[in-house]
Design a protein that fits this description.
Elements: H1 2-28, H2 34-41, H3 47-57, H4 63-75, H5 89-124, H6 129-143, H7 146-160, H8 177-211, H9 214-221, H10 226-255, H11 258-263, H12 269-278, H13 282-310
Length: 317
């Protein structure tokens, strides 16, 4: 298993290298030169200053040369400066990255805590009233647009009832864990409800398939209860497809929560990637996009570890 994980890490590094060049090339095709944009916004810059900055950032070189210049900086931990903020890319990424990780972890935890038990319950009551009700709830959650759900939550809990703040990360002049949790509540609820139906449907389908296996029939014939057979024998096998979907969703959640972050004015990675691309902030956009790619690859490796934990047979293949 250790050899397999080492091989996956090498493969992930190669994929990340290839994707970094593709992303860099695509960013280079965008209209507008960041140095020229800086010069347009600063009348005091001379032609010599522009030439010096282009040489400093490697923009005066061909595409491959520019990429190698950027890659050399990345390997030494030097990601450059953000044109939008004037700070280093690492400092610019720090706060949005922390905000997005908090939103991701909390929303995934809430969605899974709801979806997995209810998916098991729906599978054990297949084609009965509970199963139909949970299927209806799952389809409703899948069908609701996230932006509409977010606005509905703001109107209900922030505007009408006044229980929770409608936007931001912390109260101005305030702080503390409780204040942070209150600001997280609505965006987490919107993302968790949007993902709830997705995971419930996968959990239900995989559990139904696992419960029809021969070994479950044998366990039931030996006197094991339906719930006992589900939890002791079927659950581990049923979780494998759910783990696969969860691993694929990590990258999407990391960079694809632009709508949720916009609705709740939440400063995270999704909004940062959008702003950096629209603002031709090459250094920031490249670093943020590669971080999102690395998150997806990391999710795939973590899924392999989860497979081995759920099914011991996979450890020896």
């Amino acid at each position: 298993m250790t050899r397999r994980i080492a091989l996956r890490l090498v493969q992930a590094a190669l994929v990340l290298l290839v994707l970094s060049f593709v992303v860099y090339a695509l960013m280079g095709l965008m209209p507008g030169d960041p140095i020229e944009l800086m010069a347009a916004g600063s009348p005091t810059m001379t032609a010599e200053d522009v030439a010096r900055l282009k040489a400093l950032y490697g923009i005066d070189k061909p595409l491959v040369g520019r990429y190698l210049h950027w890659l050399g900086g990345v390997l030494t931990g030097e990601l450059g400066y953000s044109r939008l903020t004037g700070l280093t890319v690492l400092r610019t990424l720090a706060e949005p990255l922390g905000n997005t990780l908090a939103l991701m972890v909390a929303s995934l935890a809430c969605a899974l805590l709801l979806a997995l038990p209810l998916g098991i319950a729906a599978a054990l009551r297949e084609r009965r009233a509970l199963d139909h009700a949970l299927n209806l709830a799952a389809f409703a959650a899948i069908s609701l647009p996230v932006f509409w759900l977010g606005l509905l939550l703001i109107i209900a809990f922030a505007v009408t009832l006044g229980w929770l703040p409608a936007s931001g990360v912390t109260t101005v002049g305030g702080g503390g864990l409780l204040d942070r949790l209150r600001h997280l509540a609505l965006p987490v609820a919107a993302l968790a409800l949007a993902g709830f139906g997705h995971y419930l449907r996968y959990m239900r389908a995989s559990m139904i398939e696992a419960m029809r296996a021969d070994w479950i029939r044998t366990a039931r014939a030996k006197g094991l209860s339906l719930l006992g057979a589900a939890l002791r024998h079927a659950l581990r096998n049923a979780l494998i497809p759910v783990v696969t979907i969860l691993a694929l969703d990590l990258g999407t959640l990391f960079s694809g929560v632009v709508v949720t972050e916009t609705v709740f004015a939440y400063p995270g990675m999704g909004k940062l990637i959008f702003d950096s691309v629209m603002g031709n902030d090459y250094n920031l956009a490249l670093a943020a996009l590669m971080l999102a790619t690395a998150t997806t690859l990391l999710g795939s490796i973590l899924a392999d570890l989860a497979y081995a934990a759920l099914d011991p047979r996979l450890r020896f293949r």
